[in-house]
Amino acid sequence: MSYIEILLLRHLTRRPAHGYELRKRVERTTGVRLNNNSLYPALRRFEEAGAVTKSEEPQDGRPPRLVYALTPLGRELLHDMLADLTPEQAIDDYEFLTRLGQFALLEPGERLAVLDARDKALETRIAHLAEMLTRSAGDRWAAAVTTELSRRDVAERGWLAELRTLAAGP
């Protein structure tokens, strides 16, 4: 599951929506641009899994509009998706930040597990960047990029430590 699917389900927790409205709400609140090739297949998968229901809403002089609503199973799925951050996802900024933005839906222990997964991923990447820096000896531009990426990851690890305090509370 991807952060796009999390965003779709999260927006459906607020109220049912037709596909175009849902796409626009996600784009407006996150800046993430969705296209129909990602939106409708995800909604179809959610419907097949019982996470959303689809109903028709009549429109004057036009075909009925399909409106999607989140089911209790969909709420559970959203929760599970938020609480699960695989090592591959933990290094992806969008995957991590999407979950972080929904921490209100998670319990303190689940929040800490997500933060720990991100921290471990950053630790691994910092070590990899240190190796790359050694190999880039003599190439000042490669070294500059590698040093900056490492600096950002170290800074984020400091931020994660601050977030841990917030995440442990209600």
How much helicity do the residues have?
Answer: 55-70%
Q: Between the first and last Cα atoms, what is the distance in angstroms?
A: 27 Å
- In total, the number of strands is 3
Major sheet description: 3 strands, antiparallel
Strand ordering within the main sheet? 1-3-2
Give the overall shape.
elongated
What is the chains' assembly state? single chain
* Overall tally of domains: 2
Q: What percentage of amino acids are in beta strands?
A: 5-15%
Low-confidence blocks of residues: none
Tally of helical runs:
8
What's the pLDDT, averaged over the residues?
94
SSE order, one letter for each helix or strand: HEHHEEHHHHH
Task: Describe how the helices and strands are arranged.
Blueprint: H1 3-14, E1 17-18, H2 19-30, H3 36-49, E2 52-59, E3 62-70, H4 72-83, H5 87-90, H6 93-100, H7 108-135, H8 140-167
Antiparallel strand pairs: 1-3, 2-3
Helix pairs in contact: 1-2, 1-4, 7-8
Structural summary, described in words:
This protein is mostly helical and 170 residues long. It folds into 2 domains: 1-83, Orthogonal Bundle (Arc Repressor Mutant, subunit A), CATH 1.10.10.10; 86-170. The chain is 69% helix and 11% strand. It has helices at 3-14, 19-30, 36-49, 72-83, 87-90, 93-100, 108-135, 140-167; strands at 17-18, 52-59, 62-70. Strands 1-3-2 form a 3-stranded antiparallel β-sheet. β2 (52-59) and β3 form a beta hairpin. α7 runs antiparallel to α8. It is elongated, with a radius of gyration of 20 Å. The mean pLDDT is 94.
